[in-house]
Amino acid sequence: MLVAGGLVAWFLQAPGPGVSAVGAQSPAAGAVDLGPSARTSAPPAEPEQAGRVAGSPRRIIIPALHVDAPVLPIRTTDGTLVPPSDPQELGWWAGGARPGAARGSALVTGHTVHTGGGALDDLETLHRGDRVSVRTDHGRLGYVVRRVHVYSKGSVADHAQRLFSQRVPGRLVLVTCEDWNGEAYLSNVVVTATPR
Questions:
Q1: Which of 98, 68, 85 lies closest to 171, judged by CA?
Q2: Residue 123 DSSP symbol
Q3: What global pTM score does this model have?
Q4: Model pLDDT, residue 118
Q5: Which contacts (CB < 8 Å, 24+ apart) does range 17-21 have?
Q6: 3: how many CB neighbours lie within 10 A of its CB?
Q7: How far apart are CA 62 and CA 71, in angstroms?
Q8: pLDDT in tens, 21-44
Q9: What is the pLDDT of residue 70?
């Protein structure tokens, strides 16, 4: 973890040696290092999924968590993706896939606040089969949770290329930090959802 701008930031290396604990002074977390691939241009535009129009996400709705949060486009700086500072707002990596695209992971991240108040604070409590809706600039898209996994920091780094791939069939990936030990977040929650 790394303290960045008063927020505890976590980083993924894809691939890389792991994530080092540099320090932690704040309860919020959520920045993502997408690795070398994010330092290049965005992937070529992909066709849309049958019956779906790809679009930029505006809101994420997760009924099981009572989440209805705005989504803002965010970009990488030297491969690091930092969510909006407001923990009630989520960030969508605009350099990756759009929801509804036939290929790629539409990556959405947000800060976690160990004392409560972050939109993704309880992300790890989702279950296979839970629903997620994405409102885009072209309409509403439905997703169903296929996998919820809590990874240690090092294992997220080991699996980052697979978890955030832009070459897979179109899907939604939600990411935040987990396991606050009083000083730092020890893990990351990664939720993968596919179109329903």
A1: 98
A2: G
A3: 0.79
A4: 95
A5: 17/157, 18/153, 18/154, 18/157, 18/158, 19/153, 19/154, 19/156, 19/157, 21/153, 21/184
A6: 14
A7: 13
A8: 222 223 445 555 554 444 444 444
A9: 98
The Cα 114–Cα 122 span in angstroms is 10
Q: How many CA atoms lie within 13 A of 178 on its CB side?
A: 21
> Which SS3 state, helix, strand or coil, does residue 32 take?
strand
* Structure token pair of residue 107: 């990556």
**Please, what is the Cα angle at 123 between 61 and 93, to 5 degrees?**
65
Strand order in the sheet with 76-77: 32-33, 80-81, 76-77
Q: How far is CA 194 from CA 41, 91, 94, 105, 136, in A?
A: 25, 19, 19, 10, 16
Residues 6+ apart with CB under 8 A from 50: none
Instruction: Say if residues 81 and 100 touch (Cβ distance below 8 Å).
Output: no
Alpha-carbon span 78 to 99, nearest angstrom: 24
CB 58 within 8 A of CB 137: yes
Q: Given the structure tokens 């606040």, which residue do they identify?
A: 113
- Nearest alpha-carbon partner for 123 in 195, 189, 71, 68: 189
Mean pLDDT of the chain: 79
